[in-house]
Amino acid sequence: MVESDILGISNPGRSKDLISPSEALKRDPSFFEKRPKDENWTLRVKHSDGRIEEIVGADWEAVSRFGAVRSAVVTNPDGTPNFDRPRYDEAPSVNTVAWGKDSKTGEIRVAMISQARPHADNAFDKQSSESMVFEQIPMGFLDRVIGKDQLEGFESTSEGAKRETREETGAIVIKDISHPEYPEHYPSPTFVGTSPNVVFLEVDLEKIDKLKIDRKEQIFNAEYIPLSQLIRDIKDGKTERGYARMCISNSAILIFLSNLKQYQNADRNQKIIKVEGETHKEFKKEDPEGYLQYMLRRSRINRPEAYEENKVKAETFREKSKL
User: Fold this and answer.
1) Which pLDDT belongs to residue 150?
2) Which terminal Cβ of the chain has fewer Cβ within 10 Å, N or C?
3) Where does CATH 3.90.79.10 sit in the chain?
4) Residue range 239-255, pLDDT digits in tens
């Protein structure tokens, strides 16, 4: 990892159009002074003695294991500072669309949980002081793990998706896991720099445990509901499961819907795969290099977290086969 990839108090982002306030002052010493006072972002710190300190134009950050907020300045095309707006980054996380097919009707059902979000102000009921409860998909931060080289890292998005789904929806059996071609999911790129990954997880609807309420996370309910009901909930906005207005959840649902046909045709696809199995054998025999490239492309789409490992395996295969 090169130094420019490491974010910090004076390095808010990787884009060439984003710089720190201190760098903005180097390029234009009067940048903050000449702007209208109400256009500058001001850092206010209240000390224990009640004294409030106001800071403009300094590099600052607020950090935790869950993410960071950092001062940042957006530049003009010529590199001069244009305006300042803090950037928020979340720790690695995953957004999971967990679904299953009803064994009797063939209907697809999607897991929706009811979770309190105290940070949200209730625009539906401006007089309410209760935490808003949202109807949303399972999502959460990836757990920290010890990697192969004994350095601390994070679990894969696939493992995180399976863990979150089991914890939040009671799913016991995971039947399949897949990823959209571009799994990155940007919640609000106007100020959020990071992108959790979207993962699709098929579960066995016949083997769902009753959710154990986690008071720490304030998850009150989990239910696998029909797609038609889910779409009605999003249309209505306010439901018995909560407010269906969490954008990052609804966006992930839209990505899932755009891939829906392949899941609705899963049985037909399974038959095709069996036929393709014989075709693959001939393909691999007649054009091994072409077959290798084809499988790598599929790996990149279906298992992006294993792509680099599969590239190494492909190179080993080339060497052994003398391609």
Assistant:
1) 46
2) N
3) 91-264
4) 999 999 999 999 999 99
Q: Which residues does the chain have with pLDDT short of 70?
A: 1-5, 146-152, 210-219, 263-280, 283, 322-323
> What is the C-alpha separation between 25 and 261, in angstroms, rounded?
53
Residue 108 identity? I
* pTM flag (> 0.70): yes
Q: Tokens for 258?
A: 């755009």
pLDDT of 292 reads 78
| pLDDT on residue 216 | 56
- Amino acid identity of residue 19, one-letter, is I
Q: 244: how many CB neighbours lie within 10 A of its CB?
A: 22
Per-residue three-class SS string for the chain: CCHHHCCECCECCCCCCEECHHHHHHHCCCHHHHCCHHHCCEEEEECCCCCEEEEECCCCEEEECCEEEECCEEECCCCCEEEECCEEEECCEEEEEEEEECCCCCCEEEEEEEEEECCCCCCCCCCCCCCEEEEECCEEECCEEECCCCCEEECCHHHHHHHHHHHHHCECCEEEEECCCCCECCCCCCCECCCCEEEEEEECCCCECCCCCECCCCEEEEEEEEHHHHHHHHHHCEECCEECCCHHHHHHHHHHHHCHHHHHCHHHHHHHHHHHHHHHHHHHHHCHHHHHHHHHHHHHHHCHHHHHHHHHHHHHHHHHHCC
> What pLDDT score does 27 carry?
97
Token pair of 51 as six digits: 């004294």
Q: Which fold is adopted by the domain 91-264?
A: Nucleoside Triphosphate Pyrophosphohydrolase (3.90.79)
CA torsion angle 171 172 173 179 (round to 10): 40
How far apart CA 321 and CA 323 sit, in angstroms, is: 5
Q: Letter for the amino acid at 121?
A: D
